[in-house]
Amino acid sequence: MKALKIGNLLAQLPIVQGGMGVGISMSRLASAVANEGGVGVISAAGLGLVYKDYSPDFDKATLWGLKEEIRKAREASRGKGGLIGVNIMVAMTNFANLVKTAISEKVDIIFSGAGLPLSLPTFLTEGATTKLAPIVSSARALKVICRNWIGKYGYVPDAVVVEGPKAGGHLGFAREQIEDPAYSLEQLVPEVVAAVREIEQEHGRKIPVIAGGGIYTGEDIYNIMQLGADGVQMGTRFVATEECDASDGFKQAYIDAKEEDIELIQSPVGMPGRAIHNSFLQKVKEGLKHPKSCPFHCIKTCKVEESPYCIMTALFNAFRGQLEHGYAFCGSNAWRTERIMQVRELIEGLKEEFRSARAKFGE
């Protein structure tokens, strides 16, 4: 596999570990991926619950938790050659403070989606070294962001992630688009690559395209890179690893899942999402309503008065293995998970599958 170059940064492995909240990808997983030469990513979502012992104030605990996780990841991966990133959703109510914190802690790169991160460059301070990468679901969205960033701030994205409809968690697609072949990752990547090439030519900057959503094997990596992607984003594969920050119960939900258990849900934040069916989601379908209170005010688009449950609490419960009170987000291939392994073993397996695919197709 070719290295992934993002500005003046270099990841020896073109694999970005997808940011997964609440608590699924924190410093332990991110540093393990970085230590293998990839880009390890901490999810900022819900850290206020993980660090609630620091402060009962959700925002204060979130910002403290983000600092702590970045510092711990840095310490655990120092000198190993990989990169540490943070995933910050635009939909978070404390988006601005999370971005400022990540930049002040000198994280290598911020990945931002769940909305258009139009204001992201405004938070860069003088001398800041953090790279900025929007997450998009179409070439059109990328063009909107680039017109805004370049036109208003003179800032060209350092990288772009194009995320297809087979991804886990919240999806940037209408429900009817998710199963439509016209919106498949294989269709989206060439379109985004073409748009990126135009921007590169105009501004004389290389913008690596990172493709994610449903990529599971080394052969998948090979195939999507043949379509023009410079790297891949993988989340689901890293859940069933020893270094993943989730509880054993969360990981076991992946191992136990069958293909028919992977379902689309309507999230309280107003977007479709993909998760593993369980008793909690069944009760939601049957109309069970939880108390309509909002203890966190964490997501801008969450309609408390219409929500059957608090998504932050549900995901935090799942992170702790209390799946009777929550559920596990996952990608479309989560049912293929067979066992828990070390990140190093997973990476070596992906490399071998990639080499086999390259040999099979005559390279």
SSE topology:
Layout: E1 4-6, E2 9-11, E3 15-17, H1 27-35, E4 39-43, H2 47-50, H3 58-77, E5 83-87, H4 95-104, E6 109-112, E7 131-136, H5 139-153, E8 160-163, E9 169-170, H6 185-203, E10 209-212, H7 218-226, E11 231-234, H8 248-256, E12 262-266, E13 272-276, H9 279-285, H10 311-319, H11 343-360
Parallel strand pairs: 3-11, 4-5, 5-6, 6-7, 7-8, 8-10, 10-11
Antiparallel strand pairs: 1-2, 9-13, 12-13
Helix pairs in contact: 1-3, 3-4, 5-6, 7-11
Question: Would you write up a description of this structure?
Answer:
It is built from eleven helices and 13 strands. An eight-stranded parallel β-sheet has the order 3-11-10-8-7-6-5-4. A three-stranded antiparallel β-sheet has the order 9-13-12, with no helix packed on it. The longest helix has 20 residues, at 58-77. It folds into two domains: 4-246 and 339-360, Alpha-Beta Barrel (TIM Barrel); 248-334, no CATH class. By secondary structure, it is of the alpha/beta class. It is 36% helix and 15% strand. Strand 10 (209-212), helix 7 and strand 11 form a beta-alpha-beta unit. 52% of the residues are buried.
